[in-house]
Specification:
Elements: H1 2-23, E1 29-33, H2 40-56, E2 60-64, H3 71-78, E3 86-91, H4 92-101, E4 112-128, H5 136-145, E5 151-154, H6 160-172, E6 177-180, H7 184-192, E7 198-202, H8 203-211, E8 215-220, H9 235-238, E9 246-254, H10 259-273, H11 276-284, H12 297-317
Parallel strand pairs: 1-2, 1-3, 5-6
Antiparallel strand pairs: 3-9, 4-7, 4-8, 4-9
Helix pairs in contact: 2-10, 4-12
The chain binds D-malate (MLT).
């Protein structure tokens, strides 16, 4: 009798789960952005989220949960119910680098299930307009001559802007100071105001200010120049060969989220990335879309593993201290 009852309950539970998965989503979906509003990750989440709303038939809410280089926001997502209604947006910094720096209360590769990659952009080395350097070589010389005074704005230890700054300084042999913000959105405001000297920032965040002449750009961390900024040299061309960083972003959900919900979220994400309005906005910001085959959950998982193998040794060698 007991055996029959547990079989019946098991069948009932899977029937309910099945029905729920069929009707997913039946309420708003929340994307947790681990950085401040107005920054590059926030812009990605809001631009894509707005378009995913149409495919999902439910509102997509963006919640900014900031701090500790993005680990606070990712922790919140990891600890959320695995039902598809909480999505973690992040990137090379939050979902790879932080695992080599922080004693994280979660396993980056196993406590989150990938939904898909959403885009990538190289970093730009930018400074406030007052910096007395006309090109990248002069900027590097200026940092070397003033390393006790120069300040790099970052979005916190382990963030894209932080580990890119660490990587740059490890290549030019300097130890200038980092000024942490809750995102490169607020850091950019202080760079424009001349409160800090430099940021190694996502092109998507800096381009509007560079175009407006409010900050200066010296080099892009990619083998090829940006289509939207053909006048900005690559680091290879500008005198620091090999300084390459491509900051890719993706979506994840808590481990154990039903496959049907992940498939629905991925389909809405892919729809959004094929939307002409989203594509126009992304290209204006210098964001590259992944190839169709790279938009699958499996492709994001494979990318994350490859990048862990590539960056953890570099990050560990840099011996980054938690401030
Ligand atoms: C942000 O959205 O503020 C950035 O992604 C932060 C960073 O990683 O530099």
């Amino acid at each position: 009798m007991k055996k029959l009852l547990s079989i019946a309950l098991g069948l009932l539970a899977s029937a309910v789960a099945g029905a729920q998965a069929q009707t997913f989503p039946s309420k708003p979906v929340t994307i947790i952005v681990p950085f401040a509003a107005g920054g590059p990750t926030d812009v990605l989440a809001r631009t894509l989220g707005e378009r995913m709303r149409a495919s999902l038939g439910q509102p997509v809410i963006v919640e900014n949960v900031t701090g500790a280089g993005g680990t606070i926001g990712v922790t919140r997502a990891v600890r959320s119910a695995p039902d598809g209604y909480t999505v973690s947006i992040g990137h090379l910094g939050t979902h790879v680098v932080n695992g080599a720096i922080y004693p994280l209360p979660y396993d980056l590769l196993n406590d989150l299930d990938p939904v898909g990659q959403i885009g990538a952009n190289p970093m730009l080395v930018v400074s406030k307009n007052g910096v007395p350097a006309k090109n990248f070589k002069e900027l590097i010389a200026w940092v070397k001559a003033n390393e006790d005074k120069v300040t790099f704005g970052t979005a916190g230890v382990g963030s894209g802007s932080h580990f890119s700054g660490v990587y740059l300084q490890s290549l030019i042999g300097t130890k200038a100071r980092y000024v942490p913000y809750r995102g490169t959105g607020p850091a950019m405001l202080d760079l424009v105001a001349g409160q800090i000297d430099m940021i190694v920032d996502q092109a998507s965040n800096s381009m509007p200010q560079v175009k407006a002449g409010k900050i200066r750009a010296y080099a892009v961390t990619a083998p090829k120049r940006l289509t939207v900024a053909p006048d900005i040299p690559t680091a290879d061309e500008a005198g620091l060969p090999g300084f390459h960083i491509l900051l890719w972003s993706g979506l994840w959900v808590p481990k154990g989220t039903p496959q049907a919900a992940i498939a629905r979220l991925n389909a809405a994400m892919v729809d959004g990335l094929h939307d002409p309005g989203v594509q126009k906005r992304f290209s204006e910001l210098g964001l590259e879309l992944p190839a169709r085959a790279q938009m699958t959950p499996e492709a994001l998982r494979a990318l994350q593993k490859t990048e862990v193998a590539k960056w953890w040794p570099v990050i560990k060698a840099a011996n980054i201290k938690l401030q």
